[in-house]
Amino acid sequence: MSNLELDPQEIRCGADAGADSEVLMGREVPLGGPRAMSVSRTLPGRHRRMIGAWCFVDAYGPERAAMRVPPHPHTGLQTVSWLLAGEVLHRDSLGTLQQVRPGQLNLMTAGRGISHSEESPDTVLHGVQLWVALPGSDRHVGPGFEHHPVLPVLTGSGFAATVVMGSLGGVSSPATAYTPLVGAEIAVDGACEVPLTRGFEHGLLLLDGEIERLERGPLVYLAPGREGLRLSGRGRVLLIGGEPFGEEIVMWWNFVGRSHDEIAAFRKEWMEGTAGFGPSVFGAVVGFDGAPLPAPTLPGTRLKPRGRVR
């Protein structure tokens, strides 16, 4: 999924964990399409920019809409597409053509550069789109795509957790991850305690139903030090987390880099294809009926590498 803002702000990522917990309010961002729908963006937030390596969380629906996101580029991150309702067709410059449906994972690794598009029919859509920042040691890996139609489930008294990324309670996803992290959809039925990794920071987002002390919309941040999470009610929640990301990064539009000049070079390559890697390091998306998405204009001031919190 693309950040379709015409004037994207510099996203300043990373620093110390801070308080034990806090509520991260989302902001409404138009996604675009023939019947444009809005997403609630809780990461990056005004204060906290990352949870582990997770650097972007958009939640949308349930809402009837036709998604149409033209071809656009990514660098230095992974995109994680997770649906609760509807279906989305993914195309990318590797030649991938793949539907994602509820309970299935589409994982795209941008590495040094990839482009993709996303479309859906006019249907009820409900889901989340997440990005994971790649560490410096792996941010130039070759681009890749994985589709996982079946994922492992951790069960316990009162809950069943589908492990989308990383590991939870000794159950590990087959999806490729480059830092210690977790991403899971937890179905809660009654009172339960979900195991956590003590050294991880975590985020919790209510997806549907009613869970005590959670509201639809905000993302609840939990600082490292917890070994379990008590939940009560009936519904589904998204759990993300990981080791605090120690690197400073520059995140602007659909790029994750390490300096202003690097981001400017990514933008130039997308707009002009002049980086010397053939026609374009981002490749071409074949089969999408429409023009690629142009990059916004860079801000007048230089982008600066930042840490996890402002």
From TrEMBL:
Report the superkingdom from the record: Bacteria
Query: What broad taxonomic lineage does this protein's source fall under?
Result: Bacteria, Bacillati, Actinomycetota, Actinomycetes, Streptosporangiales
Q: Which residues form the Pirin N-terminal domain?
A: 39-132
Pfam families reported in the protein's UniProt record: Pirin, Pirin_C
Write out the similarity annotation. Belongs to the pirin family.
Gene3D superfamilies reported in the protein's UniProt record? Jelly Rolls (2.60.120.10)
Q: Which organism is it from?
A: Nonomuraea marmarensis
Q: What is this protein called?
A: Pirin family protein
Question: Which residues does the UniProt record annotate as the domain Pirin C-terminal?
Answer: 189-274
